[in-house]
Structure formats: structure tokens, C-alpha cells
Amino acid sequence: MNITITVVQNSPEFGQPEKNRAEIARSVLGQSDPSADLIVLPELFASGYQFDSRAEVEDLAEPEDGPTFRFLSDLSDRTGAVIVGGLPIRRSGGVSNGALAVYGKTLLASYDKIHLFDEEREFFLEGVRPLPVVATPFGPLGLMICFDWLFPEALRSLALSGALVVAHPSNWVLPFGPQGMILRSVENRVFTVTANRVGREERGGRAPLTFIGQSQIIGPRGDIIVRAPSDAPALLRARIDPEEARSKKVASRSDFFEQRRPELYLSLLP
Ligand code: ACM
After folding, report:
1. What angle do CA 191, 24, 45 make, to 5 degrees?
2. Ligand 1 center to residue 53 CA distance, Å?
3. Catalytic residue from among 23, 62, 146, 201
4. 105 FRET partner, CA 20 to 30 A, in 81, 82, 182, 243?
5. For the chain, what is the domain count?
6. What is the 3-state secondary structure (H, E, C) of 41-88?
7. Residue 42 maps to which CATH number?
8. Atom 3 of ligand 1 has which residue's CA nearest to it?
9. Which atom of ligand 1 is closest in space to residue 49's alpha carbon?
10. Whose CA is nearest to atom 2 of ligand 1?
11. How far is Cα 76 from Cα 72, in angstroms, rounded to an integer?
12. Atom of ligand 1 nearest to the CA of 117
């Protein structure tokens, strides 16, 4: 069954969550046909990325059922889509760099990023729960956030847990992410949906960050189904059949998930 995926590439203004959310709503709902099965938004899509103090993180953090949940829930009601997007989530003892998957009034999953990138390590709690795979009307959906991609184990865990499509909210700054995700998709034979942002942040005397856009949907055979530009907001839309990711058979006698040799790989671990 074909499904429609919308990917939002925005350019948020730091510390202006209401304005950033409103812009996304305008752009998604302004399409001639806003309906979709899955909508993916970037990491920290409404808060902005480059925090300068823990106080700032605390100030922009929200509970799981806060304004971002209500925004995603409302957008889900209006589009019929499962929606995934990133936000700073208030947890006991601090704030995570998190993502929510929302369908109507239901919180399908909340995820706290387990591989924090660079300056994030000053500000966020490291996630301690496994990467989630949730049931959706179009099959199992996995979640990971940005830098998680560089740990092959992350997407492998999601694929081994049955994910056919992986939503990947991102704030990519490293240039090799978009190409790297092609191999990740091939080696797990899953669809990956990366929503990145564009723009520049330079806050608190820190080194400037330029976000590289290139939001994309990659197919299980490594095809670039759609990719956005590197320097402008964009809305991508594509139709895919998640079932194409079900079989891991690449030749008549080679199902590469069945052929794994974990007992031998384990000997490489410390
Ligand atoms: C990143 O994980 N935001 C690079």
C-alpha cells in the first residue's frame, strides 16, 4: 500500500517556538492537499539548536504533553498523519534532546537522543531508553535523532526490531550525513526520512553553526527518492510503499538479516 510522506525543512529562529510552530503549520496546511500518512519535522524544530546555558535549555524545555505535543496533535488531526518532530523534553534531573511521535490525541512514542553531539553534551541528559519502534497504520515506524545515524547499531536496532520506515529528525551540520544515510538505508533495507533544517546560529560567542538542509527520503535500495536544497526551507512530498522494506533477501540464497553472524561480531567487543 502506497503512503504519502511529507518532510518539513524549516529555518527556525532561536527561542521563538510559537513563531516557528506557526510557520510550519502555515506551510504544511497551505499545500493544495495537506493530507499525508507521515510528516517528519527536524530535531529541536521550534526551539532552535545552539543553546548558551542550562537556564536557556530549562526555559525552552517542555513536558511530553506540552505545547509541542498539542501542536503535533492538532497538525495530525488536520492532516491525518502520524507526526514526528524534535523538542527539548523536561525529564527528572534535566532536559533531553527528544522527539515525539504523535497520532491524533495519542502519543505513540517519546524518545530521548542516546548519542548527543558535541555541545549538546553540555546541556542535555543522555537518553537511557532503547530506540523506539511503534505500530502505525502503515506498519512499524522507528525513531532516531540526527547524530544517532553515525552509530550503525542505532538504525540496525530499529531494523532488527521490525521498522520499515525510520523517521530521523535532524539538525545536521556535518557534510557527510546525507550521503552516509544512503548506505544506512541499504545495509538495513529500510526507508529513512531525514528532516533537517537550514540557516545559521552563532550564539554566546560560540563557533557558528550552518545547518546543511538536504532533507531527504532514501529508499531501501539506496535510491534518493527526494532531496531538498542545502540553503532554503522546503517541503518534500513523496509516495512510497513501506512493504518494499519487509524482505531482507538480496539474492535467492541471501537474506542478509538471516545471514548475520552476531556470535562472531561479539568477539570484536571489548
Ligand atoms: C546533531 O546531532 N544535531 C548533529
Report:
1. 65
2. 18
3. 146
4. 243
5. 1
6. CCCCCCCCCCCCCHHHHHHHCECCCCHHHHHHHHHHHHHCCEEEEEEE
7. 3.60.110.10
8. 171
9. 3
10. 147
11. 6
12. 2
pLDDT of residue 171 exceeding 90, the answer is: yes
* 220/188 Cα distance (integer angstroms): 7
Q: Annotate 247-260 with b (16+ C-beta within 10 A) or e (fewer).
A: ebeeeeeeeeeeee
Atom of ligand 1 minimally distant from the CA of 115:
2
Taking only the tens place, the pLDDT of each residue in 7-51 is 999 999 999 999 999 999 999 999 999 999 999 999 999 999 999
Rounded CA gap, 89 and 47, in Å? 11
Query: Which residue, chain included where needed, has cell 536496532?
Result: 157
Res 264: pLDDT: 86
Q: Which of 23, 56, 62, 113 is catalytic?
A: 113
Instruction: Read off the pLDDT band of 268 (50, 70, 90).
Output: low
Instruction: Give exposure, 153-180, as e/b (b: 16+ Cβ within 10 Å).
Output: ebbbbbbeeebbbbbbbbbbbeeebbee
User: Which pLDDT tens digit goes with each residue over 39-90?
Assistant: 999 999 999 999 999 999 999 999 999 999 999 999 999 999 999 999 999 9
Residue 270 contacts by C-beta under 8 Å, 6 or more apart in sequence? Answer: none
pLDDT at 263: 86
Q: Ligand 1: does its nearest atom lie under 6 Å from the Cβ of 173?
A: yes
The answer to whether residue 266 scores a pLDDT higher than 80 is: no
Q: Assess whether the C-beta atom of 116 lies below 6 angstroms from ligand 1.
A: no
Mean pLDDT of 237-252: 98
Instruction: Determine contact, residues 83/41, Cβ cutoff 8 Å.
Output: yes
